[in-house]
Amino acid sequence: MQKGIIHYGIGDSIDTYMYIKSSTKAVASNGKPFLTLILSDKTGEIEAKLWDVSEDDEKSFASEKAVKIMGEIQNYRGRSQLKIRNIRLTTDLDAINISDLIQTAPIGQEEMMGKITQYIFEMRNPNIQRITRHLLKKYQSEFITFPAATKNHHEFLSGLAYHVVSMLDLAKAIAGLYPKLNKDLLYAGVILHDLGKVMELSGPVSTVYTVEGNLLGHITIMVSEISKAADELGIDGEEIMILKHLVLSHHGKAEWGSPKPPLVMEAEVLHYIDNIDAKINMMDRALERVKPGEFTERVFALENRSFYKPQL
Amino acid sequence: MQKGIIHYGIGDSIDTYMYIKSSTKAVASNGKPFLTLILSDKTGEIEAKLWDVSEDDEKSFASEKAVKIMGEIQNYRGRSQLKIRNIRLTTDLDAINISDLIQTAPIGQEEMMGKITQYIFEMRNPNIQRITRHLLKKYQSEFITFPAATKNHHEFLSGLAYHVVSMLDLAKAIAGLYPKLNKDLLYAGVILHDLGKVMELSGPVSTVYTVEGNLLGHITIMVSEISKAADELGIDGEEIMILKHLVLSHHGKAEWGSPKPPLVMEAEVLHYIDNIDAKINMMDRALERVKPGEFTERVFALENRSFYKPQL
Amino acid sequence: MQKGIIHYGIGDSIDTYMYIKSSTKAVASNGKPFLTLILSDKTGEIEAKLWDVSEDDEKSFASEKAVKIMGEIQNYRGRSQLKIRNIRLTTDLDAINISDLIQTAPIGQEEMMGKITQYIFEMRNPNIQRITRHLLKKYQSEFITFPAATKNHHEFLSGLAYHVVSMLDLAKAIAGLYPKLNKDLLYAGVILHDLGKVMELSGPVSTVYTVEGNLLGHITIMVSEISKAADELGIDGEEIMILKHLVLSHHGKAEWGSPKPPLVMEAEVLHYIDNIDAKINMMDRALERVKPGEFTERVFALENRSFYKPQL
Amino acid sequence: MQKGIIHYGIGDSIDTYMYIKSSTKAVASNGKPFLTLILSDKTGEIEAKLWDVSEDDEKSFASEKAVKIMGEIQNYRGRSQLKIRNIRLTTDLDAINISDLIQTAPIGQEEMMGKITQYIFEMRNPNIQRITRHLLKKYQSEFITFPAATKNHHEFLSGLAYHVVSMLDLAKAIAGLYPKLNKDLLYAGVILHDLGKVMELSGPVSTVYTVEGNLLGHITIMVSEISKAADELGIDGEEIMILKHLVLSHHGKAEWGSPKPPLVMEAEVLHYIDNIDAKINMMDRALERVKPGEFTERVFALENRSFYKPQL
Amino acid sequence: MQKGIIHYGIGDSIDTYMYIKSSTKAVASNGKPFLTLILSDKTGEIEAKLWDVSEDDEKSFASEKAVKIMGEIQNYRGRSQLKIRNIRLTTDLDAINISDLIQTAPIGQEEMMGKITQYIFEMRNPNIQRITRHLLKKYQSEFITFPAATKNHHEFLSGLAYHVVSMLDLAKAIAGLYPKLNKDLLYAGVILHDLGKVMELSGPVSTVYTVEGNLLGHITIMVSEISKAADELGIDGEEIMILKHLVLSHHGKAEWGSPKPPLVMEAEVLHYIDNIDAKINMMDRALERVKPGEFTERVFALENRSFYKPQL
Amino acid sequence: MQKGIIHYGIGDSIDTYMYIKSSTKAVASNGKPFLTLILSDKTGEIEAKLWDVSEDDEKSFASEKAVKIMGEIQNYRGRSQLKIRNIRLTTDLDAINISDLIQTAPIGQEEMMGKITQYIFEMRNPNIQRITRHLLKKYQSEFITFPAATKNHHEFLSGLAYHVVSMLDLAKAIAGLYPKLNKDLLYAGVILHDLGKVMELSGPVSTVYTVEGNLLGHITIMVSEISKAADELGIDGEEIMILKHLVLSHHGKAEWGSPKPPLVMEAEVLHYIDNIDAKINMMDRALERVKPGEFTERVFALENRSFYKPQL
């Protein structure tokens, strides 16, 4: 039986299937070419070096391939590195599906779409509901597979949709406790806030920023999309301006990329919900890798803190 | 029938009972003494000047007295000020209870204690439960009447307990969605995090900082109290250290008064919950004073933002 | 012959025509209503109090009226204030045009439009040219009368157009010295960068922020407008993305309201040009009010500096 | 005759006794295990690699052992590294005492305790005197051997006590010049300010942070200890609060770990004294390693400055 | 017998001699001119209004005059203000010397010059000694009367010399404890560090910044003076560069006005000494005005802190 | 035909002449010495390792030598590195001039001096003209060969003069558009602002900071030089103070090394001009290395941004 890569420690041997997230060629000090591979399975990833590669090796062990691999985990400059003993591409006989090797959301895509559809159904303001449904439908195929980010949090297949579903549940719980909050705005804000990432990022795997993503960013892209959707649907009320503001301000502060801070209560709460779900996701994954009584590795996006796992 | 002071505008006449929150003597440009009164009712407060006062007036219209007052609301340098036509102390005939004039929590003290007791009852770790119960009992009488702060949020009678009850409900909702969170730590953290305020602040009304509050602060005071409680109860496990850490780190960052940032997941979440409840309270009260389509006054503790109330 | 208000000092008498920029009612310590007037002419503005006003006075001396006024300049708490001796509304007999009392650009509207049209004419890239012409035409009537801001710089009638014209000349000079700069992008960036202000601000005089201006801001508004224009004109090339980026990044840094910093050389240069023209305008106007050998008043938007006027 | 390690340069051969401060195993690119040793003597430390180690080597050359070593100093990526020619554990025949290889305070432990005892003896306020004596006695054995920090300043055996003794002398000198300073508070503040480090740190050598040190910190630990001492001694006056405040505020600012800034004159001066002694210690040690006319290495804790040693 | 102005409280009557530090004319709401006087004696200062003044009054009660005054201390907007009952210029009969009414250093000018001369005498490096003596002599008459600043600390007659004398004593004490410090550099640094203030400031009383002070500052002025002195004395060694660096870096950080941070140990220590003497002076004077158990007014230059005076 | 080093990519072979900017010896893991060479030609530079060097090699391949070199460009840890196949010193037969291998200003030294002389000639104020001419003449030989900095911008032979010439042209263009600017001050400010670099830096090639440069900096050095020049020329007017202020404030802010911010309009504009020319130079050179549609490497001195080269 197979445990995931994050559960192996220095000195352990592995013999398993993995996915090549990236493969980069360089030349060693002996003048021979080698590949630096980032290998992943459902639980995490590890770096490996493949020495003295031929041109064939280079083509075979390229990014987005599945491989059968044997080797040991070693300490290299304080980080784990996999020393490869044996590596080959998988064949049909291995009966391995790439989706088995890629980290993905813990809920299925259909179940997630079902939940989101239900939240849209619960909206009472028809304009908010129509805009949200229109935009989700327009980008649904990307939305349901893209990660929420290239690193830090929810950086896995369907991470974006999973982040949205978790946030919707959180929005519902908070709105239940503070009844003055407008649920329609909160739900629409959650669904649309990161939808621009389907244009900011390159795709569901091996994800990088697009040129448009670099020059404009998902916030600005999405605000223009809301304008366009409103024009197409012939909707012209304050809802449009508030929805744009929700998307625009969801990073909370100018220095975090929101040219306007939240100036509507639901925008402020949307920022909290986004923050909580992203950060619990990060802490959760860092803590998963350590035992009670230990500290995690430093988490850059959490002010470089190292978290303690109590022994309670 | 009586509407509250925050619902009156410039030019309105009032004829009502109010409470003197503070009374300060000064000398006018004509050389005669006058009093600056801060008058409140359940909804808010207003400044008033009482001109040409005698020594008797000064004694009568002192802080923490209830008065019957007539006058008009005027614009004074951009702020509302009550121009007093007539003022007198209340008598038994007025049948006015001071508690009717003081802003207080929207839930009764007994109901709040009942809810908190229930949360303590639900704790599974006996050490956490005993420490929490011990400390709450020790300071219960102050806890149930003190405000949560002298200004900004929950700055009213029983504001501290009300803030704790809201946070407990929020903690329960969030822990329901992220099952790795330890509820015992979250609930104990919520109940203890601001309990040191019963020593940092002077009392339930006309609240100011004590010398100890200024020199040590509620966080440090409470951490020492947890040490003491653990000694008295003979408890000596990791729970004590974690509870101290929860209290210590709940302001989130060194520059906000926490010498250590949250380094335990529940500590981080406690900081979020505290923040959300305090800030929604602030926004709520600012928005209550304006009509849809208007912006609130600037809220200093929310980065001086002015919030918009949508017309949806 | 008439010199402007900024050239009068403490103790001087005035007898002139002025424009009421704003009129606010309040109640004096004697219980009687009075008006605080902000009066302007082409050179600047001054505060005045009109005491013991009747309801008629209040209606007469309202905002956006022209008046004939006599009085003296006095020192009130360190600032100049006009003590009114006599005030009346102007009549046809005065032969005073409101435009004679309002600060405005030093070049005529037609001349400015002529210069801008010429710059658009010089563009070589037809897509950039068409987008720029389309958007300028769409908002030309507001563009030619609006100020560039509510305060700080170019806060006068046609200030926006004047700022654009000055920036175009500066762009041309700089592009002449650094030939790798793309003039089309620079000129289009200059013309479009602040065009969203026609929606962010309320109008050419007594200018305040609109709700949309507060919640979205002129940068975001304009980026959506460029999207829309491109759709309407059927243009779909990299030009659109770069034009959006120019507008988006022209404030230079996230904390100054640009969610993306300039990432294209012309965007960086556009930011410099905007900055130089705005700041020279501010210094110029502050220095105009002092004599050689003196320091100006502190200029808030220039890091609160007080500038020295050399005696050379 | 033997000069210390910091006096050797690139290219020098050494043949000397050293102490293994730490020993970390890793795997080389040839697949064989090697050890990274941090070796020290009284003057400083150097890194060395021990290649192709056996399991026996690994056990022998572990942390906190003394060794006889021969080799050369080499330049490795800009830093000095010792290339080992020969290494063996010391035996009784070497007549080497570990304390001869460990950096330690320049004054003996007894002399230091004598000086501190004298300062306590000079205190006039019996409460301050009793608290200070009680706490020092309680933790004396750790206090006299611990370093003052894991790096930056006084990071050697008995560094904590040496830092305290230097600060006491400095406190006496300053109090002599500014007679309004209360010497009792200054002396007690100096003695107690870092005493919590005996719980924050793991021990006198190979020092790391304890879990309690990470989650609570020496400041908070010590404030609780003062509470406890006061309870045990039955002391209950303002002295207790001021002593806690001195400890609490000695880092000077919230962002440096003091939840309250100094609000008592002696607390402010304690912060200066701590700062001066720590920083002169750091500069001194950096300057010791260079010749007149040279700059030191960058000192991270002194804003990364590189100091010049004048040729005067 | 006469106590000083800082020892009077709200409601007290005074009948004493005072010095007019500044006198500013303005017009009251009744249209009549009045003077705002800042009155001082040796202990401090107070504001007073002189109403309905004639042109003669204006000339009489001008800045830098001594007056006999009667009145009461009142609370005006939270600050003390003197209500004048009677005021007249002093005559020969009053036998009052202006120096009796001006705050000045607690040590005489001759004694201060004697101490400084002794410190120069103790220097061993003849170049440092000659430069220091030359520059002190050149500006001695201003040095001995100027304040050290226009506000914040040592802002009184001979404050600059007094600050230097205190710092010299402190330098001697610290150099005694850390023997690696070069006393010549420390003493010369102390004597020269603020000597440029004799050109930066306008004079010993009613002190303001000169134009040169505003545009260049005392640090830059003094560095050029050291260059000039070295040329004149024909000295050309490393001493000159180090002395310039000591002056240049004594504010400690670029953002505090030192274009280079201290990069020589004595420069760093000079910065500490300057800081300690200035800040103890500020705290001392704030604490002098309150009773044990009270907090001082907020001290702006000490991060706006309010200090507590213990009851010990 | 020869293209420059920046135009070669990973995998390319080169066979060309290059200049050794620096040569550093170290010991490889096999115990043998090797050299790290920084090689340059007119277009840029590249790192190379020369393995197993003899003492002769070390002497031959020292800094500031010209070599004939063959090898391939490889990827080493993400950066380009030249793998040396063959290297030899150039001989007379190669007919290679070192100046052909060193990056230098695109305009000749004489042409640059001619332009600057013309600008000085155009000055109308004789004092400004004489000071400027005097100082330029005094340091002309260094001025015309030094770089403007050791890295970031204009870090090539004659870079300082080229930066000044570009800034003069820019100053002229801007002064033409804003006629209130004093051209004499602008031109003199441009010519003098960085002239202190001839003492701050070590020389025209292999440039490092001098001790004086580290301890005083070019700004302070130049201000003293202006003092001295004024003394020597017997000039004593406000011009001197303003010229010093222009040099002093040209970094714009205290934290950027200007102890006074610009307080004269021409000083502010000088800061803009310096900034624009330096930053366009940096962007230009980064963009030169990439193709349209690509992003540049991150440019540290431009807030670590990576710039996009449009495909227009």
From TrEMBL, chains A, B, C, D, E, F:
Keyword Nuclease in annotation: yes
Superkingdom, taxonomy of origin: Bacteria
Stored InterPro entries: HD/PDEase_dom, HD_domain, NA-bd_OB-fold, NA-bd_OB_tRNA, YhaM_exoribonuc/phosphodiest
Sequence ranges assigned to domain HD in this UniProt record: 163-279
UniProt keyword Nucleus present: no
SMART domains noted in UniProt: HDc (SM00471)
GO biological process, one term: rRNA 3'-end processing
Keywords: Exonuclease, Hydrolase, Nuclease
PROSITE patterns named in the record: HD (PS51831)
MF terms (GO), sorted A to Z: exonuclease activity; nucleic acid binding
Pfam family, one: tRNA_anti-codon
Protein name: 3'-5' exoribonuclease YhaM
Encoding gene, per UniProt annotation: yhaM
